[in-house]
Amino acid sequence: MVHHIVMWKFKEHIPAEERPELLRRMEENLKSLVGKVPGLLTVEFIASPISSSTHDMALVTTLEKAEDIAVYGAHPAHVAVADAYVRPFTCQRACLDYEG
């Protein structure tokens, strides 16, 4: 089993009052990828990190094997969600993948 963790910050120009709805849409659409992307087993979206955090949100996914990370990244359903609901609003992406 492989875990793929991604964190982002909101772009500075995104108004604070719009952020809760954007987070809701990100979570809903990223979670919808389970069952659509081969090898993707679970999706957890962290929208309310505690104040010591360095990022505004995180995605924690579980995949069957390491090769599935590339499949997930290139899958048309994932690309569509990322392009519509994540990339336009976020910056400073950080990623960590590990087996366990």
Automatic annotation (TrEMBL):
<dbReference type="Pfam" id="PF07876">
    <property type="entry name" value="Dabb"/>
</dbReference>
<feature type="domain" description="Stress-response A/B barrel">
    <location>
        <begin position="2"/>
        <end position="98"/>
    </location>
</feature>
<protein>
    <submittedName>
        <fullName>Stress responsive alpha/beta barrel protein</fullName>
    </submittedName>
</protein>
<dbReference type="InterPro" id="IPR011008">
    <property type="entry name" value="Dimeric_a/b-barrel"/>
</dbReference>
<dbReference type="InterPro" id="IPR013097">
    <property type="entry name" value="Dabb"/>
</dbReference>
